[in-house]
Amino acid sequence: MALPHEKKEFDSWHRALKENKLKPEQLAVLQKMVDEGEADNLVRAAQLLDWQETVIDPDEHMYGH
């Protein structure tokens, strides 16, 4: 995804994966999660990243509020 000051390329890793909109380096992030045992497959890795974005608010995380 993007840093707070950057424009997001997409709103959902899962949707972008399904719609074949991920760049090779973004697919590599998902593949690394699979390789490291964080997810069973690319779809689950994308879902996990989407979930993390709903749980960890970037501004809140950055400023500790």
What would you say this structure looks like, in words?
This protein has 65 residues and is mainly alpha-helical. The chain has one domain. Helix content is 58%, strand content 0%. It is built from four helices and no strands. The chain is globular.
Q: In summary, what is this structure?
A:
The protein has 65 residues and is an all-alpha fold. The protein has helices at residues 13-18, 24-35, 42-55, 58-63.
- Average pLDDT score: 84
Radius of gyration: 12 Å
Q: How many separate helices?
A: 4
Total individual domains = 1
Structural class: mainly alpha
- Low-pLDDT stretches are none
Beta-sheet strand percentage?
under 5%
Head-to-tail CA distance between termini: 22 Å
How many DSSP-defined strands? 0
Global morphology: globular
The secondary-structure element order is HHHH
Largest sheet: none
Proportion of helical residues: 55-70%
Descriptive key words:
single chain; mainly alpha; globular
Write the layout of secondary structure elements.
Blueprint (H helix, E strand, L loop, with lengths): L12 H6 L5 H12 L6 H14 L2 H6 L2
